[in-house]
Design goal:
The chain has four helices and no strands. α1 runs antiparallel to α2 and α2 runs antiparallel to α3. The N and C termini lie far apart (52 Å). With 114 residues, the chain is mainly alpha-helical.
Length: 114
């Protein structure tokens, strides 16, 4: 079972490294926020899944399993919402998008009064 736990953590590390590379390559703040939110969520899912398996198999601690599961659900729900709120605030404060953008639905909605 330690192999499964190790594999989950290694997958999380690989996603984290890919996320950092992606953030460095993204052209503007909005793309970087999107990349960091998705990657951090994926990494947390893999690491907490490994921790849940460890707690279940080796520690046999039901309380820790429940706490980790609640933490996982909380993070999955709140990370995208917080990323969206930060991006929305940045947009409203005039942080520039890249010139290559193809779509700005949020700007169109603001112009229409929605």
């Amino acid at each position: 079972m330690m192999i499964v736990i190790g594999v989950l953590i290694i997958i999380g590390i690989i996603f984290a490294v890919c996320g950092v590379i992606g953030m460095l390559r993204m052209p503007d703040s909005y793309n970087r926020m999107q990349s960091s939110t998705i990657i951090s969520t994926i990494v947390v899912v893999f690491v907490i899944a490994a921790a849940i398996i460890y707690a279940a198999v080796y520690l046999k601690n039901t309380d820790m399993i429940i706490k980790l599961a609640v933490l996982l659900v909380f993070y999955i729900v709140t990370a995208p919402i917080s990323g969206h709120a930060i991006a929305k605030g940045a947009y409203r404060h005039g942080v520039k998008m890249t010139e290559k953008r193809r779509c700005d639905k949020y700007g169109e909605d603001m112009e229409n009064g929605n």
